[in-house]
Amino acid sequence: MTSKESQSAKFIDLHGHHSSSKSEDRDFLYIYSYSPKINDLPEEGQFFSAGVHPWEIEDARTSFEEVKRLCGDSNCLMVGEAGLDRSIVDDSDLRQQEEVFKWHIQLANELKKPLIIHNVKCLSEIFRLHKQFPNHSNWVLHDFNGSLSDIQECQKRSIAMSLGPRFYESQTARIAHTISDHKIDLNLIFFETDERGDINIQTIYEKFAQKQEIEIDDLKDRIWQNLKALLGTNLTS
């Protein structure tokens, strides 16, 4: 990374559902995640993603039409979140979630924008669909909670992972043990606040840097490079 690129690197909050004054701070880049029936529309000029959340797929076609319109906006950086959640349905209802998720895969492909994914206990299904749709856009698993082998499998498949505060707040989460017990390859890694408006994304960076014994500036620069690769562009102000 050149010195000029390093100076432009920001703390990236890849996925959040809350309003954030930091979105206009020159040291931070915040991507607001909009989901119909869950939260408010993005503000004018705000970077965002848009998708039908698997928790709210009743009348999904109407919601998806709104998502399609929003995803055509130049400030929409990603499609989603959309995905699969086995914790709230049985396997028969999971098929409905999968149908809606496929709409988002196809939309992301058409727009050539990354797809940010909600996944709860469905990683094998995500991998199956990743293989089923060749030449698709980049994928990101948000609030990733997996083992070292899960991380390595995602990296092998070029699926990015966004880590939230659970890796340092929860003593029982798999990702907490993964981060504490292993050195993590930073390829395809991001960070997010998700619904936690009480947490600054810089804090999450600092906690990860401490646990992984990385200089915070080096971590910041590397994640910025990951974002450039994910989006295919450099978001500088």
Automatic annotation (TrEMBL):
Q: Which SUPFAM superfamilies match?
A: Metallo-dependent hydrolases
Q: Which InterPro entries match?
A: Metal_Hydrolase, TatD-like
What top-level branch of life does the organism fall under? Answer: Bacteria
Ranges of Basic and acidic residues compositional bias? 12-22
Q: Which Pfam families match?
A: TatD_DNase
* Chain positions covered by the region annotation Disordered: 1-22
Protein known as = TatD family deoxyribonuclease
Look up and give the organism this protein is from. Halobacteriovorax vibrionivorans
Q: What is the lineage of its organism?
A: Bacteria, Pseudomonadati, Bdellovibrionota, Bacteriovoracia, Bacteriovoracales
